[in-house]
Amino acid sequence: MSAVLVSLENVNAAFGTRTLLDRVSLGIGAGERIGVVGRNGAGKSTLLRIIAGEVAPDAGRVVPAGSTRVATLAQADVLPAERTVREIVVGTVAEHEWAADPRQRGILAGLGLLERLDDPVGPMSGGERRRVALARLLVQDTDLLILDEPTNHLDVEGVAWLARHLAGFRGGLLVATHDRWFLDEVCGRVWEVVDGRVDAYEGGYSAYVLARAERTRRADATEARRQNLLRKELAWLRRGPPARTSKPRFRIDAANALIADEPPPRDTMALRSFAASRLGKDVYDAEHITVRIGDRTLFDDVTWLVGPGDRIGLVGVNGAGKTTLLRVLLGAVTPEAGRVRVGASVRPALLSQEIAELPASLRALEAVEQVGQVLEVEKGRERTAGQLLEQFGLPSSRQWTRVGDLSGGERRRLQLLRLLMARPNVLLLDEPTNDLDTDTLTALEDLLDSWPGSLIVVSHDRYFLERTCDVTLALLGDGHLRMLPGGIEEYLARRAAARQDAAARAPSSRGSSAAGCGAGGQTTTVAEAGRTGGPPVLSGGELRAARKELTRLERALDRLSRREQELHHELAEAATDHERLLTLDAELRAVVADKDSTEEAWLTLAAEIEGG
């Protein structure tokens, strides 16, 4: 069993009159990788700060191991504006010292900071400042990393790099995030903070959904159980895009049994037909548009046709013009060349990144009913404003709270509901997952499954894009809009190829100034440094051997899982035989340990194959 880094004993914590943690006892061991989920305001950040020793609990105690080195990342990045990236990340360490460390060099390259070491932090964007804060944290030697919403402000590439990097971190990891893809890639356990307690689940987000669905099935075996959103989400996880199929096979049988009669999340053809009857054949026809901002060309002779019922995900590098493209469709930005034709029956609605002005003096329910009292969520089925607020995490006890007293996440949900209540037939969502917890995101996805209109989503949340959209388009920073049949995986591959091409074309002399000198005095290019921080690149033969070993590990995991279940049954049957119980318990411990080490090997090998 791994050494315990920090343990909590009967910890209580409250905020005002609300109890966030009620007699919570738990611990995190060396090498454990735990994701923390829960409703907004449930106490996730409070739990992390108590474990980190930043705040004291109201009751109980926190016991850290004496030599444990803890590093934390808060939701907000507080960085001195006048200091440079170099000063914040590596401090006064001589360049030849940190540049000779492949781990530190790889972190700076992976986060895109090698060529920006002398840039001041003050003028940087939120995403750039997040990368600096992450780099400062990751270059440290730590035993326990505590990350609170680490993917905030990061684009798809940044999130993917961070997941790969953390896969190689051997210390303890505790991360609170609403990014479900990130949870699946990084975490081996999930803690759910709910009603003052912390419920533990084995596995990443997919396993957490399965476990919750199974727990609910056992508690309620009636037909009403089929309406539970967890089954629907689990069905999508198993039948979803190819990118989601590289998960441990030892959970597949259980998942298939649970969702055997669950229909697909949405009937795409029926929704397109319904959308066409509401929208006609024309929605947006952007023809040969060119948009420039200053001396930058965002779009160069771009043609894009959006039809009725289209569900489009839009990704791209920071500053490529994703938000601007939405504003072009809405007529808020006029292109220098080309034109945008809008269908006669189009009623668009934009969810912006900023929380729009809400009537602060109204109650939450009044603010929604001001726009509409009933919303048709499926043909012939309606939900009231109160029911939708309940579904979106605002129970009846909170629906009469004034808007001005709601949290940022609650106001975000209110903004989204008011938008839907206006009954648009075209939705343009700009980073809709900001400030929303995983349960609210699941409810939003369920609502969008039956929404009969055209949908355009700009988001860095890979899971949300794959879950709600049928098509992915990319702005790669070259002024063009490209279709990605391979989805996010294809986008990341194209971006990686573009970086390698740029590094290959760059003069070799840039290596000495950008990356510093290696241990032997040789210069290191940005591309080489980036490869140092990622998973090893495998040759063709190594890749085939790795895939063969991955299959063997999957079979071993399946066998160990079956044996674990058998031992649990045998333990129940031998409840009165003390000696038999001791023998079975010893075997069970051995099987669980073997299963944990095999799963760790599977995860490590899977990361290497992805990198190769």
UniProtKB/TrEMBL annotation:
Cited PROSITE patterns: ABC_TRANSPORTER_1, ABC_TRANSPORTER_2
Matches recorded under Pfam families: ABC_tran, ABC_tran_Xtn
GO MF entry, a single one: ATP binding
Keywords: ATP-binding, Coiled coil, Nucleotide-binding
Transmembrane segments: none
Domain ABC transporter: 6-220, 284-510
Compositional bias ranges of the Low complexity kind: 503-516
Coiled coil: 543-577
InterPro entries in alphabetical order: AAA+_ATPase, ABC_tran_Xtn, ABC_transporter-like_ATP-bd, ABC_transporter-like_CS, ABCF_ATPase, P-loop_NTPase
Region annotation Disordered: where it falls in the sequence: 503-541
Listed name of the protein: ABC transporter related
Source organism of this protein record: Frankia casuarinae (strain DSM 45818 / CECT 9043 / HFP020203 / CcI3)
